[in-house]
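Q: Focus on the chain.
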Amino acid sequence: MSSAPDPRTTTATGSDVRVRFCPSPTGLPHVGLIRTALFNWGYARHHGGKLVFRIEDTDAARDSEESYQQLLDALRWLHIDWDEGVEVGGPHAPYRQSQRSDLYLEVLEKLKAAGAVYESFSTAEEIDARNEANGRAKQMGYDNYDRDLTEEQKAAFRAEGRQPALRLRVPDEDITYVDLIRGEVTFPAGSFPDFVIVRPNGAPLYTFVNPVDDALMGITHVLRGEDLMPSTARQLVLYAALVDAGVTTFIPRFGHMPLVLGDGTKKLSKRDPRADLFLHRERGFIHEGLLNYLALLGWSIGHDRDVFSLEEFIAAFDIADVNPNPARFDQKKAESINGDHIRMLEPADFAERIVPYLVKAGVVGKNPTDEQRALITAAAPLIQERLPLLGDAPGLLGFLFADEVSYDDDALAGLPDNAAEVLNACVAALELVPETEFTAQAIQDALSSALIDGLGLKPRVAYGPPRVAISGRRVSPPLFESMELLGKQASVARLAALVRHLAA
């Protein structure tokens, strides 16, 4: 290696681009992880390349099959597909680290034969003692002591019952690469010592298996979080060794995406509700809206535009355009963008998407009847223009499916003193509208004549009491259209019911 980027770094473009998404199956998927998947997916699709989805599941204490299934669920819900990997197969199977042990051993033998790794018998206590004796700070860690042990010394250590770790030789030179997002980065010579790639018990470390998998799978571009940037120098050293050993022919390019922040300057915690992908789905984000917002965490399609389709994202996205500065997760903006995408849905599609939320809230049964589905289809356009989250649908439409209305406290508290008079006037006016002509326009004409012309009320005051009577809420879908959907009999009954409630 030299102070210039390694000339063996890939120049792959177009359909030769190969990126990967390689999470560990631990815990719930969070938005930072999904943003990484999105940017890799977008880069592959933009260039006509390939996305590889593999699983790093060698930490038996933390990995779980449940988390693996949740990862699959998350990507499928978000419509992020992959070309090779778990569940779909490919030429570099298997795609789970736990099933690739034999491949790692083969690579290790090649590195040994090339002289890139050596046995290290030093214990942590011995390293600390040598550093202290030589006036080196303990934080400097390993001192490369075992690099040139003789066979006799190795045999003596084995006779004591010691098992060696395997370390990679690190050249005493600057390590430079050009980050796709951050430009040229140099790690000065001596930034880190020879490092362990295989533990004394024979278990390979992440710093070994991750680059090896990339090399064996032909990954050309490693796009990952900024928090992993400190390990890049080690990976570059290992890649160079893999090229020298004939395992691969090139070194991939790296791009380190900005952190996603929560409050202040802190990285968005996995425990923060804003990081919980499934909570966003539960609250009613649609995949188009959430992906649009996640794309904005470090990237922009234009200076004056925040809302775009996934097709537009793919056409415009390039990792080189990602901003290296941290991005903050703004819940209100995310919901606003989601609302924009909800309004872009076809009415029938929107109606279908709110059904699971109505079912979960108990508004309709698990298998809605034909009559209920017809009502959902008719009512959906009344709320589509005002809904930021699908999870708000039950609160806005529930009254249409209820036999009786329950009144919100704030709705009752906001009623005027003459609410009963207004409601009685509504009943009298609507009784005159024939049931066969009970349309939104006829209802509006009748109530306007009775309340605005007859009682001299302003519209804002006039329609408050009937809105509460019909929906039980201060805010509801359009009043006249709601009454048309309920029908004359149910609408008049609800108006009269609120009069009785106020008199009780």
